[in-house]
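Exercise: predict the fold of this chain.
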Amino acid sequence: MIDYPQIDPVWFTIPTPFEGFSIPIRWYSLAYIGGIVLGWWYILRLVAQPGSPLARRHADDLVTWVTLGIIIGGRLAYVIFYDGGEFFGPQGSLANVFRVWEGGMSFHGGAAGVAIAIIAYGLSQKLDWLRMADYVACVVPIGLFLGRCANFINGELWGRPTDVPWAMIFPSDPMGVPRHPSQLYEAALEGLVLFAILAYMFWRTRARLMPGMLTGAFLLGYGLFRFAVEFVRTPDAQLGTLDWGLTMGQTLCLPMIAGGLYLIATAPGRHARRDIAAA
């Protein structure tokens, strides 16, 4: 067993002149900020390549739209799919929806929010939204990696009990048993591995000239990685394993996998219909 590194979830605290009130700066918040900033920097490198569907000014504007999509979509999906009792139950309150600093975000909802933001922005600017999504898909693993690392620091979303040599006991675990550090599995697969796959496809192949290919690769890769890790990740306490034998995370991955396969299969034909190779 490996000792869990005790890292304070609060990086530092900003003092204020008001007694008993300070502003904590948490690693989880920094993960979101870092993901957006690094993603912005990386997408500017991508759009600088020939044949980009975006200009620099479009990429700058898109950051704001995508950020709103992440926050709104991620929070609403958590409310709807994961912990409705906290908001709609007899002891819950709709006001809790706005208490985002307490956690409670769904990646699947954030991805849906980003998709809606890309489509809306593309239509407003008369841009090819599917090709825009291809570029954004290459960036998303950066935020996933940082977010999963923050989950690990927070000691949340840990794995199922195990006796593997790298198991850890998480301080927030009431059972106090060795568990899979499933947050690190997800950081590696959804973050590092998926980023490397998409980067290779973008820089070393003609995938960026086939609308939907990179988006499909992202959806398929994330769906498969998340589906697999869910077997060693503890299901959400308020849901557990659903009646059909899957967790909520696995269930929400199924349409991602299907959509990814469809986009990958149809991307070559979409390329043949659009004369963008010359660009």
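Check your answer against the key: The first helix runs from residue 27 to 47.
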